[in-house]
Amino acid sequence: MTTQPLLLSLPLFPLGTVLFPGGLLPLRIFEVRYLDMIGKCHKAGTPFGVVSLNQGSEVRKAGAGAESFASTGVLASIRELTTPQSGLLEIECVGTQRFRVIGTELQKHGLWTAEVEAVPDDLALAIPEDLQHTTMALQRLLNTLEERSAAEGEEEVQLPIGKPYRFEDCGWVANRWCELLPVQPAVKQRLMELDSPLMRLELVSDLLARTGIVE
């Protein structure tokens, strides 16, 4: 996306959640429109676009109107794919580049495609002293999850955050908290769209205080 800022006919996957750069996204695919799309993306090694739904549902229903979705999304790169049974795919994706939708087209079989342009990556910014509590709280949470998994005898720890960890980076810490916080998708969408990773982390700090996660 950095060298090719415009992608034509990028397939879209509207979801009731928000994907962030660096975030993990597990999906179970059973709709025909997405089985074909995911199969082609996996075979070609190409991403698809995840956009947050404003209206409509993830699973298409007969007689329902077309979905509407946010105009900014994130590319999802497939890193694992399994076929537990016929007509079902289970995939794990990782969010990469943010993009802005320029134009969309609804295909006959219900798949959305779009022309998009790249949104610049977050600048790498060190976490200021007054926001260090956000990264320390995230470290404590991950340590707790790892200890709990070890106590339960799980051989492979399944965490909601993928490595490498970047606890020193504003954008990375803000994005991970945005994924974990119990707030509405519309709030997460606004946070994801912010150009400033520092502002995103400052707002996350306020949300952590409001929800009582961090005092």
Walk me through the structure:
With 215 residues, this protein is an alpha+beta fold. Helices cover 31% and strands 31% of the residues. The protein is built from five helices and seven strands, in the order E-E-H-E-E-E-E-E-H-H-H-H. It has helices spanning 32-44, 132-151, 170-180, 185-193, 197-210; strands at residues 6-15, 24-29, 48-55, 68-69, 72-85, 88-106, 112-118. It has a five-stranded mixed barrel with strand order 1-3-5-6-7. Helix 3 runs parallel beside helix 5 (197-210). The radius of gyration is 18 Å and the shape is globular. The mean pLDDT is 89.
SSE diagram, text form:
Elements: E1 6-15, E2 24-29, H1 32-44, E3 48-55, E4 68-69, E5 72-85, E6 88-106, E7 112-118, H2 132-151, H3 170-180, H4 185-193, H5 197-210
Parallel strand pairs: 1-3
Antiparallel strand pairs: 1-7, 2-6, 3-4, 3-5, 5-6, 6-7
Helix pairs in contact: 3-5
Task: Provide key terms for this protein.
215 residues; alpha+beta; five-stranded mixed beta barrel; 5 helices; 7 strands; globular
Topology as H/E string? EEHEEEEEHHHH
Helix content: 25-40%
Alpha carbon gyration radius: 18 Å
Which residue ranges are poorly predicted, with pLDDT under 50 across at least 5 consecutive positions? none
SS content category: alpha+beta
Oligomeric description of these chains? single chain
Number of helices: 5
Tell me the span between the first and last alpha carbons. Answer: 39 Å
Q: Strands across the major sheet, in which order?
A: 1-3-5-6-7
Strand content: 25-35%
Average predicted local confidence, pLDDT:
89
| Strand elements, count | 7
Note the overall shape.
globular
Sheet with most strands? 5 strands, mixed, barrel
